[in-house]
Design goal:
Oligomer: single chain
Distance between the termini: 42 Å
Strand order of the largest sheet: 1-2
Helix content: 40-55%
Strand content: 15-25%
Number of domains: 1
Radius of gyration: 13 Å
Number of strands: 2
Order of helices and strands: HEHEH
């Protein structure tokens, strides 16, 4: 594992969520592929979401 995936896998045994919200022109499909390749975490604590998806779910949750 590398310097990025090791902490994510190690912290997956805690009640902790890591959410990456994409804003801008970043390589977001690469981040989604990265998420899919994280080796067997105890809890799937890393999620990638676009800003638009995040806003949609936020408004749906808050009812506004």
């Amino acid at each position: 594992m590398n310097n990025t995936t090791s902490p994510i896998v190690n912290e997956s045994s805690y009640a902790l969520s890591i959410v990456l919200v994409s804003v801008g022109d970043g390589p977001w499909t690469d981040m989604m592929k990265f998420n899919d390749k994280i080796p067997k975490p105890a809890f799937n604590n890393f999620q990638v979401s676009s800003h638009f998806q995040f806003q949609f779910h936020l408004h749906t949750f808050l009812g506004s």
